[in-house]
Amino acid sequence: MRSERLPAVLVAFRPGYSSLVMFSKDVGEINSTAFRSDGLASVTRLRIERAGVTGISEGAFGSLVRLAFLGLNRNLLTEINPNWFGRPEVLGELDLTGNQIEVLHESTLSGFLNLTRLSLRENRIRLIDPNGFSSHAALAQLDLSGNRMTRVSPQAFGSLWSTRIGLDGNPWNCSCGAEDFVDFLKDLMSRSLLDRPDQVTCESPPSLRGRPVWNVSLCVMSPPPPAVPVHPKPTGILTSAKVPPSRPTSETKTSVGPEPTTMSSITGTCGSSCHPLYIYMVHLIPTGKVIIIAW
């Protein structure tokens, strides 16, 4: 049932009912008039699950002024907006399990001042603003399991003094820099506020994969990449030539000419049959000097 057809159904909704469960598919975006009906003022619980909801217009739930529970499981939502509601402060429970939310901004949950239960399980959350839950001290249950978070600032949970939190199923990074988060989890453990603690495990570095995050005590650094050897460039031209056996091995000659001369030399690879005597000739181009040193 498309969202534009919803008013035809809800206009005949009788006042006095407290719960509304809707079964539909491929709903798309719920527009601002879809739930506009005076008969919905008594509804306190609304479920629209597995309906293909991709978005919700501002004011769409404005007629549900007593709505205390909203279940939008297994839809295609990418955001949460308090402006969906006429009175967001009345909402106590919000279940958005299995949607496609990626980021919780500071303003995402503003207005939900009396929220006690929030499920964002199995979304795509990778980032939470440090002030994302700053005004939600009333939260008793927060489920963030099964998302894509690697690190979260403990500041994000600073106001949740007595909230039971689910953080399992995320690819946590336990390398250096995560000490504050590890300490935060240990504190939750000590107060029995961490759900499924043995499943809150490290994904990286590889040496800690599978270990509970709260059980990490040392700072583990990833091994550095192998160093690339650097060879200094020669300042002159180095050549070698084979010396006949009859020449003295201690002879040193220096010749100086007014102009640089061109020098030819024999360069190659010597096998085991070659004579071990070589001459190394360094041609210093700027001065025109040739130094021959026997070795």
Automatic annotation (TrEMBL):
Coiled-coil ranges per UniProt: none
SUPFAM superfamilies registered for this protein in UniProt: L domain-like (SSF52058)
Domain of life: Eukaryota
InterPro entries found in the cross-reference section: Cys-rich_flank_reg_C, Leu-rich_rpt, Leu-rich_rpt_typical-subtyp, LRR_dom_sf
UniProt-annotated stretches for the region Disordered: 239-262
Ranges of residues in domain LRRCT: 170-224
Organism, scientific name: Cyclopterus lumpus
Comp. bias intervals (Polar residues): 248-262
Keywords: Leucine-rich repeat, Repeat, Signal
Protein name (database record): LRRCT domain-containing protein
